[in-house]
Amino acid sequence: MSNDCKKKNAQVLDGSDIRDLVSNEKVFTSFVDHKFKELDRDHDGKLSVKELQPAVADIGAALGLPAQGTSSDSDHIYSEVLNEFTHGKREEVSKTEFKAVLSDILLGMAAGLKRDPIVILRIDGQELLEFADGPRFQPETLAIFSHIESNDKTLRDCIIAALGELTVDHGMPPSDSWVTSNVVEPALESCGVDRYQRPISQETFLEVFHKVLANISQQLKERPVIVAHSENTFDGSGIRRLLSNKFELDKLLDTAWGSLPKDRRGKATKEFVRLALDGIGPAANLPPYGAVDQIDKVVEAALNMVDADDGKPVEEEEFKKLMKEVLGSVMLQLEGNPISVSANSVVHEPLSASSSVLTPSPESSPVPETE
Question: Staple 47 to which of 24, 51, 94, 148, CB 3.0 to 4.6 Å?
Answer without folding.
Answer: 51
